[in-house]
Design a protein that fits this description.
alpha/beta, TIM Barrel, 8-stranded mixed β-sheet, two-stranded parallel ribbon
């Protein structure tokens, strides 16, 4: 492969209203129409909970909800930032729901989850960025479902002293924070964040709790080059990150940044091979890869990979 942006889909056509190119045949998803999905949706409404599956318009919602898997989004449904790729509502958030940790723990127990993923909106309005709510959710789930492993996908807690340390010391089994894209694209794609601060966050987690797995992901198809993606891999490994996810960016609405290109399955296989060669314990790279997709299965693989590494 050459050091050029990924191949553009031949049917790409730009128009003034900022459309993405037409989706290629290898991106196919089903709507969440199963009875199991209806049960998950009803439970979320009864418990006043939000899921990133719905709020971020995840393409895998039909598959995941059919298997009664959901990624819970705490601290409300309104984000204080406005990333160009994200479908979550932006504005002034409401008050924190102090019953949310208990409702979440009840839902995890009733769904019989063995592995749960908890993420949140950015809450720059809170003194600790919402770290206290992450900790409360972890503690309540552990009390209600001791066998359930816990994965957090946190914001960067920018300028919130002590927030990261508090969540890391709650010892989630997996600590995830997504870099989202290559550093060159941060001003246009993730303007409220800083690439190297996010890297330092993940490195700090390893310093605090070496046994916690760390995880991060990026989207491709935003105009990055292959060399830039490989450099992000090297940066992640330098920060001790165990697990990398790489997925295709899909434009949620015409208000969001358009897809620059659709990365082919062969290119994803190349990224997967390169990431494995660089020493990641776990790699997930495909057009429909998302941070929490198959998180339960991937956690089992992570543990096996670390055990094999330590034994070798």
């Amino acid at each position: 492969m050459t050091d050029k942006p990924a191949l553009r889909h031949p049917e790409k056509a730009r128009k003034p209203d900022n459309p993405s190119p037409r989706k290629p045949d290898w991106i196919r998803v089903k709507a969440p129409t199963s009875a199991e999905a209806a049960d998950v949706r009803r439970l979320m409404r009864e418990k006043n909970l939000h899921t990133v599956c719905e709020e971020a318009a995840c393409p895998n919602i039909g598959e995941c909800w059919k298997h009664r898997h959901a990624t819970f989004m705490i601290l409300g449904d309104t984000c204080t930032r406005a990333c160009a790729f994200c479908n979550v509502r932006t504005g002034k958030p409401g008050p924190v729901d102090l019953l949310e940790p208990d409702n979440l723990a009840d839902s995890v127990r009733s769904m019989g989850l063995k592995h749960v993923v908890i993420t949140s909106v950015d809450r720059d309005d809170l003194d600790d960025g919402g770290a206290f709510q992450f900790v409360a959710c972890i503690e309540r789930i552990r009390a209600a479902s001791p066998e359930c492993t816990i994965e957090v996908l946190t914001p960067d807690f920018r300028d919130k002293a002590g927030a990261l340390d508090r969540v890391a010391r709650a010892r989630p089994d997996v600590f995830n924070h997504n870099l989202e894209t290559v550093p060159r694209l941060y001003p246009s794609i993730r303007p409220g964040a800083r690439y190297f601060e996010s890297l330092r966050l993940l490195q700090r987690v390893k310093d605090i709790e070496p046994q916690s797995f760390t995880k991060s992901g990026i989207m491709v198809g935003l105009g990055e080059t292959r060399a830039e993606v490989l450099q992000v891999m090297d940066d992640m490994r330098s920060a001790g990150i165990d697990f990398i996810t790489i997925g295709q960016y899909l434009q949620p609405t015409l208000k969001h940044v358009a897809v620059d290109c659709f990365v082919t399955p062969d290119e994803f296989e190349d990224y997967k091979s390169m990431a494995r060669a660089k020493g990641f314990l776990m790699v997930s790279a495909s057009p429909l890869t998302r941070s929490s997709h198959h998180a339960d299965r991937d956690f089992d693989e992570l543990r096996k990979a670390r055990a094999a590494r330590d034994a070798g």
